[in-house]
Amino acid sequence: MKKTATGNDMKKIHxxxxxxxxxxxxxxxGEKALKKGKYEQALSLSINRLKRHPAHxxxxxxxxxxxxxxxxxxxxxxxxxxTENRPFKWxxxxxxxxxxxxxERALKNCRACxxxxxxxxxxxxxxxxxxxxxxxxxxxxxxxxxxQYKENRPAAQDAxxxxxxxxxxxxxxxxxxxxLLLAKEYATLRIVIEPVIEEETMSKxxxxxxxxxxxxxxxxxxxxxxxxxxxxxxxxQEDSLPAHHVLRxxxxxxxxxxxxxxxxxxxxxxxxxxxxxxxxxxxxxxxxVMEPVKxxxxxxxxxxxxxxxxxxxxxxxxxxxxxxxxxxxxxxxWKEEWQTFSGDNRALNxxxxxxxxxxFPASDWDLFKKLSRSAAGRIYYRIQNFYxxxxxxxxxxxxxxx
Length: 402
What we know:
There is one protein chain. By secondary structure, this protein is of the alpha/beta class. It is 48% helix and 24% strand. Strands 1, 2, 3, 4, 5, 6 and 7 form a seven-stranded mixed sheet that branches. Helix 4 packs antiparallel against helix 5. The two termini are 76 Å apart.
């Protein structure tokens, strides 16, 4: 039976709601945020409250306190940045002025807010334009300085960062695009992908196929970062800038074609009973013998498998040390099954036997091709992850780990 609320229950609910009203209002007006010193949040909440309820006293008090606190915080930050004189201080100053401008724009749609302040919204457009120009100039000059040392890749990377920031801040530096392209050219990490080295000999057919799969992965896919360039030795030779790293791959071995042939037997019996004979139960009475019929289901299988192994290492050409190494061990398997049955066919209960064995099982070459595709894809994926974010410097591996 469904229970209905009694008079006492309703009184409790009303009392609880009454107690919660001040808490809900304090959150809606921003009072709670103000007490925590979160002026921006308190200001936003109080403005929204005053738009809907211009006479709300608590929202008015929160608004005035939050407006004063936020403005004071922004101006104190601006003064501190100018005093500290840190690199790219104008970007920090610009952010504070943008916050001030954002607050003033929020007041335009709040008549009650403007009446409380007794003033019109202040425009920071002129000062923001001036500070933006100063920030862009500082970045542009830093980019030019870094570009003087462009042969040093970390310096070129710094130049890329500076000119990207210039483009975000201002359009007045018309040569920023060309300087950014030049910086990227020198900041790009060049990795030479050398042909596979055979530590165990393959046939020419096998070598060419494996090499082709690796080249397709490294040279036809996107690089992991715009400042990463994979090159073959010929392209590296023609490049006007030197390579930084080299990837060496070693084919260390493969198994021959392994084949396993076998079968398993299972006894089946029918779901229903059939007459399998007769018997006498006395001198004159003969009855049918009803039993499930049986048979043997034989599942034959043939498996062919092959495995291979490659190792690879990345060498820093500047100091000829190994900065990364790993192994790839692959295995590919081909398998087929077929069934035969002996006994009473009614024991199959309608089961259809799987087809007979194929006339064209996977060959050694078929499995080698699968292994090569897998190896190329997996190695490329690992190298791509290694270079996902270009570093300014790569540490050498300890000799004991090589």
